[in-house]
Amino acid sequence: MGFGGSVGKAVGEPLCGLPRLDRGRPQRAAPTGALDPTTGGRAEGRPYGMESRATAWYRSYGVEIQGGRREAVLRLPTPDPQDKDGAMKKKPEVMADLNAEACRIWDANAEWWDDKIGDGNALQIELIEPATERLLGIASGETVLDIGCGAGRFARRMAELGACVVAIDFSERFIARAKERTPPEMSIEYLVMDATNREKLLTLGANRFDAAVATMALMDMATIEPLMGALRELLKPGGRFVFSVIHPCFDSSHTCKFAEQVVADGRVTTRRGVMVRGYLTPTACRAEGIVGQPEPQHYFHRPLGMLLNAGFREGFAIDGLEEPAFRTGVEDAAAVWWRHPDIPPVLVVRMRLLK
Predict the structure, then answer these.
(1) Domains of the chain: residue spans and CATH
(2) Could you give the C-alpha distances from 266 to 263, 269, 336, in angstroms and in order?
(3) Within 10 A of 275 (CB to CB), how many other CB atoms are there?
(4) First-to-last C-alpha distance (Å) of the chain
(5) DSSP code for 267
(6) What is 304-348 written as a DSSP string?
(7) Is 285:71 a contact under the CB 8 Å cutoff?
(8) pTM of the predicted protein model
(9) Of 251, 278, 279, 276, nearest to 338 (Cα)?
(10) Per-residue pLDDT tens digits for 57-74
């Protein structure tokens, strides 16, 4: 999980993690043998009555099953501002199911994903990592927590910058791959740990960390409130938390990218943009982060207010933010959908603990 190791969630080749034109064509739930929204495979005669609680909850909300890359969209409960555990208290069994399923899927995808983009891709190298480094501002000797480290790509980068890194991921296979990739002299401790489990996170040690980072990981997590509550205890006073996510305004289950040819000043040009619908609705869906991966993963869309208020409630304030976009124009037909020079595909935020 997380771009920190193998770009865990979105973008490997063009279209990875980004909407396709066929995204918005819902079909009514098909009979037995259709695509199964829980496994991503064919049901092969399994009656819908034998589905998991997560899939049952999808249907209880009247969710339509969609063919292709995006198979189901689920409206998530909005956390009560006075409820520190948020969605987990509202639907604890379902959220636990979604989280367990997310872990299983990332275990299934880990080696394939790391083989595909473990050495970096355009989104990492040009956008995510430079912005994250700038906002983190790591000083030699600092202790940093890497949340959703994947195969450890960014953990190794922080170690190169002089940090002592504790890197966690809920996927055992990602952690195994991270250990294989990491030279023994690097100051990195890898742990299998679920970042939605506040109690487990607190075992890492109060006031231990100068900074924490979550590289493209929060949108993989069924709930983020337990993490934000734990970070309040784990970080030193004034500690910073830098996270990156696929930009929630411009890439979600509600958006559709388009390109059209228009005549301007007598010339035929291509105009690109994003159509946004339902932005304020928190949703969960399954999608491919890289085309052809073994199993589609869960993607949890949260509007900015929901995403940032989880930190504000725990005493964090934003003191840095970047919306990096590709500087170059469209280079080929496929890139028309994801290399917008004026539409940022990712959001990188620095929050600082004030109390």
Answers:
(1) 2-353 (3.40.50.150)
(2) 6, 9, 22
(3) 11
(4) 29
(5) E
(6) HHHHHHHHHTTTEEEEEEE----SS---STGGGGT--TTS-SEEE
(7) yes
(8) 0.78
(9) 251
(10) 444 444 433 333 334 556
